[in-house]
């Protein structure tokens, strides 16, 4: 199977206040409307990402930035079992509600992540902290999925 990471959620602390209005006026692809949201929203095309810049952080031209407490909060990955899944059978060993969501929600204990399993065999993995957890989770779920392979 081919594994991929589609999202990264990261946090950092720049350790000094920012003038959000000034950032929004001088930066490209930046939006700031404090009545609706208390941060500058900056959309970057390459790599395609969105940044939220809050006034409690630090960003100042001419000074190198210091990144404190940088860590990945959540990653979203995906993989394909390469065969259709009989979700009706698999739902018996999970706490999913197929009438509310077209996929099956599977909460894995180790690694501690959530898998969204679809009848097509596609699987979305959320709550990942390290890239290696994508492989580990799919290795754990693959034998279970094979047991519910549609004929």
UniProtKB/TrEMBL annotation:
The keyword Transcription applies. GO terms for molecular function: DNA binding. The keyword Transcription applies. Keywords: DNA-binding, Transcription. One of its GO terms (biological process) is DNA-templated transcription initiation. Belongs to the TBP family. This is TATA box binding protein like 2. The lineage of its organism: Eukaryota, Metazoa, Chordata, Craniata, Vertebrata.
């Amino acid at each position: 199977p081919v594994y991929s990471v589609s999202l990264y959620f990261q946090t950092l602390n720049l350790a000094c206040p920012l003038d959000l209005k000034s950032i929004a006026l001088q930066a490209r692809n930046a939006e700031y409307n404090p009545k609706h949201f208390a941060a500058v929203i900056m959309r970057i095309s390459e790599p395609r990402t969105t940044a939220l810049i809050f006034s409690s952080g630090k960003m100042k031209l001419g000074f190198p930035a210091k990144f404190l407490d940088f860590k990945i909060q959540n990653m979203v990955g995906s993989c394909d079992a390469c065969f259709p899944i009989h979700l009706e059978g698999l739902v018996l060993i999970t706490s999913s509600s197929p009438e509310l969501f077209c996929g099956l929600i599977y909460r894995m204990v180790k690694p501690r992540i959530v898998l969204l399993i679809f009848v097509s065999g596609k699987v979305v993995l959320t709550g990942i902290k390290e890239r290696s957890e994508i492989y580990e989770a799919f290795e754990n779920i693959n034998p279970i999925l094979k047991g519910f392979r549609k004929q």
